[in-house]
Amino acid sequence: MTGSERREQLVAVSRALFAEKGFEGTSVEEIAARAKVSKPVVYEHFGGKEGIYAVVVDREVQRLLGMLTEQLSSGGHPKIVVERAALALLDYIEANTDGFRILVRDSPVAQATGTFSSLIGDVATQVEHLLAEQFRARRLDPAAAPMYAQMLVGLIALTGQWWLEARHPKKTEVAAHIVNLAWNGLKGLERDPQLGSLDKP
Length: 201
Known about the structure:
Elements: H1 3-21, H2 28-35, H3 39-46, H4 49-72, H5 78-95, H6 97-104, H7 116-137, H8 145-166, H9 171-187
């Protein structure tokens, strides 16, 4: 194998192990054994488990973010954009199950960037602009758009985590339900929502 081929092999082997056992449960010894190389080969390419984990996470983040960004920036009616974004996440989970398992696990590595929560924050920032535009058109306060963007993206992401294991109902049905709740909820927004329970003695 060439150096680059060996590197790709180690990334693929590590990705499968991290998905199966998590960061803490995976050792350099296991990576080396599954790749049929010695431990020094792993250290030579990545400097250790943290280095190879960072590469795996970065690739997954870029893949998922690319899929979501493409759908969010494709234009069209806002409801269709929400549909596309929900389906893009479910498509990613279906095609990259190991990658999504790695992203949603808590890890001591790369706390500031490359975590699932930072990825969700990046996507929410893009959604925020779409929502602010819609809020202005409906005479709602656009300053609330960042908070609603977090809610909307969180709804899709957490449903995706549930579907990762459930895999039922089918993907398009799950996406339709996500959009049903999100879109119909957004459609009926009040200008000044209040908690009714606070008015009661």
